[in-house]
Amino acid sequence: MPENSDLIDVDSLLTESELELRRTVRAFVDAEIKPHIAGWYENAEFPTRIIPRLAELGLLGMHLTGYGCPGRSAVEYGIAALELEAGDSGLRTFVSVQGSLAMTAIHRHGSEEQKQEWLPRMAAGTAIGCFGLTEPTAGSDPGSMTTFARRDGEDWVINGTKRWIGLASIADIAVIWAMTDDGIRGFLVPTGTPGFTATVIPQKLSMRASIQCEIELAEVRLPGSAMLPKAKGLRGPFECLNEARYGIIWGVMGAARDSYLAALDYSLERLQFGRPLAGYQLTQEKLVNMAIEINKGTLLALQLGRLKDAGSLQPHQISIGKLNNCREAITIARDARAMLGGNGITLDYSPLRHANNLESVRTYEGTDEVHTLVIGNHITGIPAFR
């Protein structure tokens, strides 16, 4: 972390290869994202031209092995997510949807033929994927999905609606989860298939430099080979969601750090009543509280990353990280915005943009309430979802 935010020498816990990856991704964000992100956000533009660079840096499916995937560690993936989200949550979300959701679904649950067909191209950024689970009336309760896939001879025919699906309008392949007579199954749907329509959701107040869509599936006919053979029931999509949630734990600390540093720089330069804002006790208290939570959240992310690399990370631990770090990051971004006064509502400064984005990040891949109940179930042994 930058010197003014790493108060407890978290960097000493990282290997040289991890630090080198961080330097590389941070330099990319500083040079190619931050100078342009205000315009992309204001114009609601996702910059597709950065996709080849993300692939070149080995950030697409980076935690997966084989099939042209980078095969990096969980901690390295987390570090990259943090640095990307210091640029913008929407750009980190692209890497998450492509790698943690769509590519992981194929890598973990697909046939050998499906893996060979899609993963090398997705790792190279020449094919884009999306992950269709959430529906207009089935967000936190995906088991109530109404999208249905029926057998018709050797084929499958899918009907239904998905909503809040990242990248769907630019995707080449969609991982669609649908109810069948045999329970929930996953299907690979080429987006050019007749009956598949992706419509961008307009007028968002959050994640404006990102793409979210509604998908309509009207008599979408697929061959039997389109089904993901190793995924049955909700465990399949939940395993992918946990990969995405893990990346969020790291990523939101990037948004928090960038917000904190913006407030710190501003408070050192802004004069009020003849002295810098940073010289006032109330300002220093706010900066201290931000820095402490960033250090705590980064340590939490690192601990969970080490557990993941050791193969021992548990779902309730992912929920702890997602709940805590999102909650703290959005508080930091809001407090940083307040420290900027009226200037803080402009896109000249990052905190309000981060705060708006974090409203989405806090909601997707499990709300605060859902993760609270996951942790509560682990503590008490009593499931309170119903």
Characterise the protein shown here:
By secondary structure, the protein is α+β, with helices and mostly antiparallel strands. The chain folds into three domains: 10-123, Acyl-CoA dehydrogenase/oxidase, N-terminal domain (Butyryl-Coa Dehydrogenase, subunit A, domain 1, Orthogonal Bundle); 129-232, Butyryl-CoA Dehydrogenase, subunit A, domain 2 (Beta Barrel); 236-380, Butyryl-CoA Dehydrogenase, subunit A, domain 3 (Up-down Bundle), CATH 1.20.140.10. The chain contains eleven helices and ten strands. It has helices at 16-33, 37-42, 51-56, 74-87, 89-109, 112-123, 235-269, 281-309, 315-339, 351-363, 368-380, and strands spanning 129-132, 148-152, 155-166, 173-180, 183-190, 196-200, 212-222, 227-232, 271-272, 275-276. The protein has a four-stranded mixed sheet. Strands 2-3-7-6 form a four-stranded antiparallel sheet, covered by helices on one side. Strand 2 and strand 3 (155-166) form a beta hairpin.
